[in-house]
Specification:
Distance between the termini: 60 Å
CATH architecture of the largest domain: 3-Layer(aba) Sandwich
Number of strands: 20
Structural class: alpha/beta
Strand content: 15-25%
Radius of gyration: 27 Å
Number of helices: 18
CATH class of the largest domain: Alpha Beta
CATH topology of the largest domain: Rossmann fold
Strand order of the largest sheet: 3-2-4-1-5
Shape: elongated
Helix content: 25-40%
C-alpha cells in the first residue's frame, strides 16, 4: 500500500455540527483535500486548514455533481498523489452512504484509508424528534432500510412480506419520493394501517420539521404539507413517545433562521449559543481579519508595550493579535511589565483574561464614548497609553484620551477586509430559503454585508449589537429591530430571544 497519502471516509453526522465526532474534526483539520456531499452541516468545512482543496460532489436525491464511479476515481487519485484526503459524507458513511463501495475501491487501488463512523440520521433524527427507536415497552428489535435503491437493478430488494411482519421499530431513509408506495406496500403485505409513523425533515437542525400520522394517511399529510427530502421515517408505536419527550422542537428559537455575519473565526460562539436555543443558523461571514499593512511598526510597538502606563484594547481581535505578537517575542508574561489594562467591554475583557492577564478598567457602556467617560474618572494626564486598534477604528478613543491629557500612541493591530470565500454556500442558502433575522456585530459587518448586493429577505429583520452598529444599519436605510444591552454576544443572544418571544 501507498505509505504517503491516506483517505479518511468520514461521517459528518445528521446535521447538528455538535454531533460530529472528535475524530471527524481532527481529520477535517488535517486534510489537504475534502471531497464532500451536499452536507446539512456545511459549517464543518470551516474547520479546514488554509489552502485545503474543497471539492463538492453533490450527492443528494436527483442531484449528483459527479457520478459515483468518478467520485471513486477522484479519491483514489488524490490519495495516490500523497494527499491527506477526507471523503466527508452526511450521517454515517456505512449506512446507505456507499462508504463500503468507496472503501473497496481504495483497498483495490492499494492506498491507505480509514473509516470514521458518524451518527446516522436513522438514530439522530428520531432522537431530536423525541422518538426513541428502541424502548422496552414498545420493541426489542430495530430494522433500518432504504427507500432509495439502485435504479439500474430493475427490481426491488425489499421483501415487503417479511418487512411488514417484522416486529419492532422500522426506520427508512431516502424514501420521501416513494413514501406512498412504501406505506401502501407495507399495509398490502400485512402491516396494520393504523401503525404510527413519523417523518422528520432536516433532522437535528433548526430547520427540523416533524409530521406524524399512520401508514394509511401519512402520504396525504406529507403531500398537503409539501414535505420533501431529506427526511427520515420511523414506523412503530415508539412514535407515541414523542408527545412526552419532544425536547428539541420546544426551544425558544426553534424554527427561526438566523444569519451570523461575524468573521469565520469568531462566528462559532454566537452560532453555538443560537443553535443551543434551537435556531437554524446560517454562517455568512462578511469580513475577515488580516495583518496591518505596516507589520514592522506593529511589532515594534508590541515589543515596547512594557514601557506604557496603560494598554487600551477596544476589540477581542486586537487582543488576540497583540498577544500573539507579544508571545512570539517574549516567553514570559512578566515581560509585559506593569501597565494598567483597559477593555472596552466584557467580550474584550474576557479575551484578555484568556491570557491570564487582569483587567483594570471596563466602562459601563461598551462603546468608545463609554470608555472615555470611564477614563474621565481617572487621573491620566501625562500618562502614556498604547491604544491597540483596527485600522478602520473611529478616532474617538485616541482623540478623547488626548483631550484628557494622556500621551497616546496608536498601535494598528489588524485590518478588516471583505470576506470573499463562501465554502458552505451560505449566500445561495440565504437567497433560496430567506431568514428571520440577520445579526450584525459591528459597523463593518453591516457595510460589507450590504456590499454583497444580496436581496434583503422578505419578512427578515436586523439585530444590532450596539449603537455604532445601529447607526451603520440606519445609514443603509435599515432600522434595527433591536439593539443588544449590554453590547456583547450574551446581550445579543438575550435580545434575540426577547424579540422572538414577543413576536410569538
Amino acid at each position: 500500500m501507498s505509505s504517503t497519502g491516506i483517505c479518511y471516509l468520514v461521517g459528518a453526522g445528521p446535521g447538528d455540527p455538535g454531533l460530529a465526532t472528535l475524530r471527524a474534526k481532527e481529520c477535517i483539520e488535517r486534510a489537504d483535500v475534502i471531497v464532500h456531499d451536499a452536507l446539512s452541516s456545511a459549517e464543518l468545512l470551516n474547520w479546514r486548514k488554509p489552502g485545503c482543496e474543497l471539492i463538492h460532489v453533490g450527492k443528494r436525491a436527483g442531484d449528483h455533481t459527479l457520478p459515483q464511479d468518478e467520485i471513486n476515481d477522484l479519491i483514489v487519485e488524490k490519495t495516490k498523489a500523497g494527499k491527506i484526503v477526507v471523503r466527508l459524507k452526511g450521517g454515517d458513511p456505512m449506512i446507505f452512504g456507499r462508504g463500503g463501495e468507496e472503501a473497496a475501491e481504495l483497498a483495490e487501488a492499494g492506498v491507505r484509508f480509514e473509516i470514521v463512523p458518524g451518527i446516522s440520521s436513522a438514530i439522530g433524527g428520531p432522537a431530536y424528534a423525541g422518538i426513541p427507536v428502541t424502548h422496552r415497552e414498545h420493541n426489542t428489535q430495530l430494522t433500518i432500510f432504504t427507500g432509495h435503491e439502485d435504479p439500474t437493478k430493475g427490481y426491488s430488494s425489499i421483501d415487503y412480506t417479511q418487512l411488514a411482519k417484522t416486529p419492532g421499530t422500522k426506520v427508512f431513509l431516502m424514501g420521501m419520493a416513494r413514501l406512498r408506495e412504501i406505506t401502501a406496500k407495507l399495509v398490502e403485505h400485512g402491516a396494520a394501517s393504523d401503525t404510527p409513523i413519523a417523518l422528520t425533515r432536516w433532522a437535528t437542525t433548526g430547520a427540523q420539521k416533524t409530521l406524524t400520522g399512520t401508514l394509511a394517511d401519512i402520504a396525504d399529510i406529507a403531500e398537503r404539507a409539501e414535505f420533501g427530502s431529506p427526511a427520515v421515517a420511523v414506523i412503530g408505536t415508539v412514535v407515541n413517545e414523542r408527545k412526552a419527550i419532544n425536547w428539541f422542537e420546544t426551544r425558544p428559537l426553534f424554527g427561526k433562521r438566523i444569519v451570523v455575519t461575524r468573521t469565520r473565526e469568531q462566528a462559532g460562539k454566537l452560532s453555538a449559543e443560537l443553535r443551543e436555543l434551537g435556531a437554524d443558523v446560517i454562517e455568512l461571514p462578511t469580513i475577515r481579519i488580516e495583518a496591518p499593512e505596516d507589520k514592522h511598526e506593529f511589532a515594534q510597538m508590541v515589543t515596547h508595550a512594557h514601557e506604557y502606563d496603560w494598554l487600551v484594547f477596544t476589540s477581542p481581535n486586537g487582543v488576540q493579535r497583540f498577544f500573539d505578537a507579544f508571545f512570539a517575542v517574549y516567553e514570559d508574561a512578566r515581560s509585559l511589565g506593569n501597565p494598567r489594562i483597559a477593555a472596552i467591554g466584557n467580550g474584550t475583557a474576557a479575551k484578555i483574561r484568556e491570557y491570564r492577564i487582569g483587567v483594570d478598567l471596563i466602562p459601563e457602556k461598551f462603546v468608545a464614548e463609554g470608555l472615555i467617560e470611564a477614563f474621565e474618572k481617572q487621573s491620566v494626564e501625562n500618562l502614556t497609553m498604547l491604544w491597540v486598534r483596527a485600522a478602520e477604528s473611529r478616532d474617538i478613543v485616541g482623540d478623547g484620551l488626548t483631550k484628557l491629557g494622556a500621551i497616546v500612541d496608536e498601535c494598528i493591530a489588524y485590518r478588516t477586509v471583505p470576506e470573499t470565500e463562501d465554502p458552505t454556500g451560505a449566500k445561495a442558502r440565504l437567497a433560496e430559503h430567506g431568514a428571520d433575522l440577520i445579526t450584525f456585530t459591528s459597523g463593518s459587518t453591516v457595510d460589507h454585508f450590504m456590499a454583497l448586493g444580496l436581496e434583503w429577505p422578505e419578512g427578515c429583520v436586523a439585530g444590532s449589537i450596539g449603537p455604532v452598529t445601529s447607526d451603520a444599519l440606519r445609514k443603509h436605510g435599515l432600522k434595527p429591530a433591536f439593539e443588544a444591552s449590554p453590547h456583547d454576544i450574551p446581550g445579543l443572544v438575550a435580545a434575540t430571544v426577547r424579540h422572538f418571544s414577543a413576536d410569538r
